[in-house]
Automatic annotation (TrEMBL):
Coiled coil: none annotated. It is a multi-pass membrane protein. The chain crosses the membrane at residues 15-38, 221-242. This is SURF1-like protein. Belongs to the SURF1 family.
Length: 251
């Protein structure tokens, strides 16, 4: 009799363990499928973003947002928009931002553009190598007369990069932080964005514009397939265990 009760308890324990295992596997499969679906949705969003940015970049340039529209400028709606602006470059207030480009290491030259309405826009005029960081070595490119700038609207990059933080006190910059640069250079009424100048040559060849890198990593399809494959593997394991248990019971 004791042996019968022992076998019965063992079967009940085994059934409970199997039920727990199956329940956890079902939850795991559901989670994996949900992650796969989420990545498919992200893929659709990323492809839409790339298409919108591509359209903005290749559109005809429009006037850069004026002071009255600054509050409506956003990354989602305006970044990489093809814009133009006219004014006078304040070369005595330029800032050098450390940069690593296809031309090698050096600096972005950030110069305030003073507009007719009394406001300013920071212009990333382009790249100069380290041996040309001193403005006196590229005086031909320091335009003192009114200029027309065409380029891509970019959103401010506050504080620095993931690796290095800006150090305004030492005048060391690693990102194009509009507010901090404007404060450090005493530029009033500055737009909350900056403009990456296009490849229009500057006198003397420096700075070199048109080096904006527009890269959006798009690995969402790979991630989606990974999650779905894992879900299939988990479902296969669940089916194998369930089939083995049924065979054992029949035996």
């Amino acid at each position: 009799m004791a042996d019968v009760f022992s076998k019965k308890a063992h079967r009940q324990h085994t059934a409970a363990g199997l039920a727990t295992f199956c329940g956890l596997m079902v939850l795991l499969i559901a989670a994996l499928v949900a992650l796969g679906v989420w990545q498919v949705e992200r893929l659709s969003w990323k492809e839409g973003l790339i298409a919108r940015v591509d359209q903005r970049v290749h559109a005809e340039p429009v006037q850069a947002p004026a002071h009255a529209a600054w509050g409506q400028v956003s990354r989602a709606k305006d970044e990489y928009r093809h814009v133009r602006a006219e004014g006078v470059l304040q070369n005595d207030k330029e800032t050098l931002i450390y940069a690593s480009t296809t031309l090698g290491p050096g600096y972005w030259v950030i110069t305030p553009l003073y507009l007719a309405d009394g406001t300013s826009i920071l212009i990333n005029r382009g790249f100069v190598p380290a041996d040309k960081r001193d403005p006196s070595t590229r005086s031909e490119g320091e335009k003192p007369t009114p200029v027309k700038i065409t380029g891509l609207l970019r959103i401010t990059e506050p504080k620095g990069t993931m690796i290095k933080s800006n150090d305004p006190a030492s005048d060391r910059w690693y990102s194009r932080d509009v507010a901090a640069i404007a404060e450090h250079r005493h530029v009033a009424d500055v737009a909350p964005y900056f403009i990456d100048a296009d490849a229009t040559p500057n006198p003397g060849g420096l700075p070199v514009g048109g080096l904006t890198q527009i890269v959006f990593p798009n690995n969402h399809l790979v991630y989606a397939l990974t999650w779905f494959v894992l879900a299939i593997m988990a479902a296969g394991l669940l089916a194998f265990v369930a089939r083995s248990e049924l065979r054992a019971r029949r035996a």
